[in-house]
């Protein structure tokens, strides 16, 4: 994961993503870089438009909202989902009873 972060940092800073630059970022983070992983990452990213990939990536809703506002919204959504499950179970139970009495 640290290699991907290194590549994203280099991209954000508008630097070339090369084996040496990725190794430099990983070393600066205090990790000994694995040459095979660095080489594989750089080769894979050479064919990827990172800007387009970032635009197409799904964004978590919780990350876009303030921390205090996220908790109540999640609780309400969860309660609604639970309510729908209960209603569906009740409907299924009624359908089963109606089949018994034809």
What does this structure look like?
By secondary structure, this protein is mainly α. It has two domains: 1-57, Arc Repressor Mutant, subunit A; 61-102. Helix content is 75%, strand content 0%. The protein has helices at residues 2-12, 19-28, 35-45, 50-56, 61-64, 67-100. The longest helix is centred in the last third of the chain and has 34 residues, at 67-100. The chain is elongated, with a radius of gyration of 25 Å. The model has no long low-confidence stretch (mean pLDDT 78).
Major beta sheet summary: none
CATH overall fold name of the largest domain: Arc Repressor Mutant, subunit A
* Shape-level CATH architecture of the largest domain: Orthogonal Bundle
Give the terminus-to-terminus CA distance: 60 Å
Rg calc: 25 Å
**Helix coverage percent:** over 70%
Helix/strand class: mainly alpha
| CATH top level label of the largest domain | Mainly Alpha
Tally of structural domains: 2
Low-confidence stretches: none
Figure out the total of helices. Answer: 6
> What would you call the shape?
elongated
Number of strands: 0
Q: Strand portion, in percent?
A: under 5%
